[in-house]
Here is the input.
Amino acid sequence: MKIHKLTDAGKKIYREWLDRRTPSELPPKELLDEPSNASVAVDVEIDLTKIFKNRFEFGKYVHDLLCENFDAKLFLAQKNDGIWEWLTIAYFSQFGKKMSKYWHYRIERKGHSGSLAYRHLARTSFEMYWRHGPEALVMLSAEMPTWGDLSEQLTSRQNVVYHRAYIQTANAMYMKGGEPLTGAASRVKPIKKRKRGDTSGKGGVGRLALAVRRLSRTYDTHILQPSQMMELLPREFANFIAKASAK
Amino acid sequence: MPRLSALSNPTGLIDIEKSRITIILDESAKRLAFSLARLDLSGIEVHPAVSVVVIVKRGNSEERVYLGEVSDWNKGFVVLSEIADEGTWLFRVLLVQAADSLLVAAAENIRPDGQGDTTSFIALEPAELGQRPWEIQILESDGRAILRFNKDIYHSSVEAEADKFFTGLILPEVVRRLAEWLARDPAKLSESTWEDFKAWLLLHGITDEPSEDNEEEQADWSTRVTAAFCNRFKIATQLLEARKKEEKDEDS
Here is the structure.
């Protein structure tokens, strides 16, 4: 089937269905190719029977299909949000295995603190693969229906999510055998809740964002190789760096 | 790495004043591009081989651009491939030691001058105008014009700008009047206060200036300036689309 995008009418039906869906229920089939609900977006065939191990595989597959002849930015424009919702429907048996928040299945550009489009499972998989290539694994290693704390921490910090060296370093430091290391997504507790000597969350991916932001005041961090970046990072990252070096 | 203090500046980073930098944007429909047109380093000692790097930020996106060595950096327009289509533009201009990526000098939070749009030399301002919908004021000493709109119609400049009919019908006329005013005394274009407008003209392919004593040439120049503005922003197409949308909304 060719890649479609939802029409306004299709979006309305899909959103209403999302609001009342039950576990393991699939979206109405007519959303896929009924002309009033969906129209061909690009003349590119897609295999709707394909099974993906994780969102990285999905992002790569869609990226390779779309970007052979088109500019990736075109598909990220608001006017093409319907493509990502159509793709979510097309692979809903994989994306929708859990009953997660609606913003993972439909593109929500208005949230209480800005756009939530980054939380869309399909769109972000494509965008992150386009921007970071194989290094995007660190944020897309979760299974298809899972958003995950690592994805949230890496993609929600929008001042660093496009920072190539940051993502490359995160991928080198926090991944082993295609899986994230324990503690990579841990967060530092607020001071009031933190006991003396509690170092949980230190050296995690959230702290890396902060460290890179600080380093960028002194270095042209965008072109640093992961090994150079690791040399410059403070001591709290030593454990993860040691594990990365032992790979 | 030893802890760095924000106050001690252990690497001797030089702070470049914003006034030493001019960045021009090209936001035409087909591309997003910028030019680091001016980087005045007079009185600042830097090695001629350090690299000029610009970090372009817009909305949530960021793109790094290498412009060559400081002794001969690329002043032409550089197309941005990864930057977002929406959001506020901000630039960091960095001078980088190639060997270890250490910053030698930096200018932070630079906003583009002489933007490819008109905001740098046409401001919008609400005003008490009775029954008159709008008027134009040219501020010679500031090198810009103010489009004063009737505040009974629009409460804010954001509201006025959002109305495609208002901007589509009025802005070309404002540009024409400004062009006519300058065409009558083209020497003004050489004054520093009108640098933004001159940069805008260059970006739109207007490289000549009309003669001081030839009214026909002045009128032709003003018409070309207005046409360049309308072509770039596809004013007629925008109006047509706004009209179609309105008709569609009425039908539904």
Q: What stands out?
A: The mean pLDDT of chain B is 83. Residues 122-251 of chain B form one domain.
